[in-house]
Write a structure and sequence with these properties.
- The chain is α/β, with parallel strands linked by helices and 388 residues long.
- The protein folds into two domains: 145 residues, Lyase, Ornithine Decarboxylase, Chain A, domain 1 (Beta Barrel); 231 residues, Alpha-Beta Barrel (TIM Barrel), CATH 3.20.20.
- The chain is built from ten helices and 21 strands.
- The strands form four sheets. Strands 1, 2, 13, 14, 15, 17, 19, 20 and 21 form a nine-stranded mixed beta sheet that branches. Strands 3-4-5-6-7-9-11-12 form an eight-stranded parallel barrel, surrounded by four helices.
- The longest helix is centred in the middle third of the chain and has 18 residues.
- The radius of gyration is 22 Å and the shape is elongated.
- The mean pLDDT is 94.
- The chain binds pyridoxal-5'-phosphate.
- The site of pyridoxal-5'-phosphate has 16 residues, from helix 10.
- Pyridoxal-5'-phosphate binds next to helix 10.
């Protein structure tokens, strides 16, 4: 395909032809749309996309093309990005702490659902949001495990406060719902099941029926092993049936990571080698690998490509990968099995880089300007060095 082409066949043909010296994220719309369609077909309810995972315009457009009609937003800037992609899709504002100015912005943009986890925040909503036709979802937190990274310390009300919040939301005239977030990269169906039963219990204690139950995001993506999403979906259906019986609320979820992870691969270029084996690449923890700083860590699946597009043949050994900035923290955790004939100018390609990569990237030390190139396929030909 020509250099001017807007859509390349794949990452390797672009790397061979262009030889980029900046990190490149390769995006396959077909992979994103298929993932979104599969998720919607399997999940027992509505699927809303949490745009915090990846807010690129091409991501939003392709999710809308794949049938996503609701978006979870956390700020006026995210509201603006969704509205730029579509004036019609539903906005769910599920960052439970908002300033009065942010609430006014949300009202003007037509937000239809807000989560809340404290009486003080509910009072701000009562003061700023006309209740008619608007949903308030009380966010519950339980001390349970299952996710690699739990957000419970920051958000969510306990059982007793959730009861009070539900009653107050109903008294204020809002449509009543509940929500929770099991934490991100969660692959244990029991985490959802426990939350669903607890939400039914809160609703029954409050004497407030739920119009909707939002079972959050958190659905695991492939971190070396493909997650069993079907088991999680079945677990959610089973728990809703058991907990709510015949008075079931509508179910909604708001995945970020699980929808976008597989739609991007990242190519980094080797910019320096150390005699001790350390390898410096042009992207790091202040760029696309921001999750190296949290328990989710870095992707396991990687391959190497020579500068002219060939395969390496040297024996591999475990080596440390350093990012490009001057900060000593800027190294990927663990070690990667890299070939002895790896040279400056060669590429290391990481699979599963769509979530929380561009979204959390900084411009520290002048790095972090990652280009997005659209490709037909994200397949990496066999024969390249697999360093996972
Ligand atoms: C309220 C809420 N919903 C959804 C998500 C998306 O989570 P994930 O990317 O793990 O699916 C988050 C992530 O922080 C969140 O805070």
């Amino acid at each position: 395909m020509s250099r001017e082409a807007l859509i390349w066949d794949d990452a390797v043909s672009h790397l061979k032809s262009v030889g980029p010296e900046q990190p490149v994220l390769y995006f396959a719309p077909s992979v994103l749309q298929q993932t979104a369609r599969d998720f919607q077909a399997g999940f027992p309810g509505m699927v809303s996309y949490a745009i915090k995972a990846n807010d690129a315009g091409v991501v939003l457009e392709n999710l809308i093309a794949a049938g996503i009609t609701a978006f979870d937003v956390a700020s006026p800037a995210e509201i603006h990005m969704v509205r730029a992609a579509s004036p019609h899709v539903a906005l769910h504002y599920n960052n439970p702490v908002r300033s009065p100015a942010e609430i006014a912005h949300a009202v003007a943009a037509g937000v239809v659902s807000y989560s809340v986890d404290s009486m003080r925040e509910l009072e701000k909503l009562i003061a700023g949001v006309p209740a008619s036709g608007v949903e308030v979802a009380v966010r519950l937190h339980l001390p349970i495990k299952g996710a690699v990274y739990d957000f419970g310390e920051k958000f969510g009300a306990d059982h007793a406060d959730s009861v009070l919040l539900l009653r107050a939301a109903e008294a204020a005239g809002f449509q009543c719902a509940m929500t929770f977030h099991p934490g991100t990269q969660c692959d244990d169906p029991m985490a959802w099941s426990e939350y669903i039963h607890a939400c039914a219990d809160v609703s029954s204690h409050a004497g407030v029926a739920l119009g909707r139950l939002n079972v959050g995001g958190g659905f695991a993506a492939n971190r070396g092993v493909a997650p069993d999403l079907a088991a999680i979906f079945t677990g959610i259906s089973t728990a809703v049936n058991a907990a709510f019986g015949t008075a079931q609320p509508e179910i909604i979820c708001e995945p970020g990571r699980a929808l976008v992870t597989e739609a991007f691969v990242l190519a980094t270029q080797v910019k320096g080698l150390r005699d001790c084996g350390g390898v410096f690449v042009n992207d790091g923890i202040y760029g696309s690998f921001g999750e190296a700083m949290n328990p989710v860590g870095v992707p396991e699946r990687a391959s190497t490509l020579t500068a002219n597009g060939g395969a390496h043949s040297g024996a591999t050994s475990p080596r440390v990968l350093y990012g490009p900035t001057c900060d000593s923290l800027d190294r990927l955790p663990g070690k990667y099995a890299l070939p002895s004939d790896l040279n400056e100018g060669d590429y290391i390609i990481f699979k599963g880089m769509g979530a929380y990569s561009t979204a959390t990237s900084t411009r520290f030390n002048g790095y972090g300007a990652t280009q997005i190139i659209t490709v037909q396929s994200l397949d990496i030909p066999t024969g390249l060095g697999d360093v996972a």
